[in-house]
Amino acid sequence: MNGEREGLRGGVSPADGPEEAAGTPAPVAPADEGTEHPAGTMLAEPPADDSGPDAPVDAEGPPGVPRNAAAARAVVTRLLELWFRGRDGEGPADFVVADALLVTSELVTNAVRHGGGLTGFTAEITDDGLLLTVGDASTEAPVVVERDPATAPIGGYGWPLVRRLTEWVSVTHHLGGKNIVALIALT
Predict the structure, then answer these.
(1) What does the DSSP assignment read for 54-90?
(2) pLDDT attached to residue 151
(3) Nearest to 28 by CA among 54, 4, 64, 61
(4) pLDDT at 41 over 60
(5) Interatomic CA distance for residues 169 and 166, integer angstroms
(6) Were 56 and a residue from 46, 120, 146, 172 both cysteine, which residue would form a disulfide, CB within 3.0 to 4.6 Å?
């Protein structure tokens, strides 16, 4: 914990333990949906409709933060559709979209279940792929728990799955919680 950001490449960790770094601030609030940004990036934000139980944004949570994993997946789906629209019919392969949505679901669900609540969410397309930032209120890093395959335990598969499906993932701590940043290749 020397204040530097530590990332994983190819889902491999030196000891298959938690990856962490300190001193990175909370994610910046995303810009308007579909807004082009420098360096070839594009950010998406959940719509601000806060009516009804299926509202994508939690009216009582931080502004622009999806209410749940389904709303976060909707943000990512919309971002991918906007990004690939008009690119000569080229879009991401179905498995790439499925991986992106699975990683989104895992990170958001874990923030809600184990991280003290979702405090931030951004989805951004960069030259390297889909960059997700998920903030939560816990300072504890995700862990890999050794499992006995014979007992078929429930749970505990999300973090290894995220690490396997991403190009890299990092955990950064800040006052009041942490951010998990994951890059999913779109090719």
Answers:
(1) T-SB-TTSSTT-BSSHHHHHHHHHHHHHHHHTTSTT-
(2) 80
(3) 64
(4) no
(5) 7
(6) 46
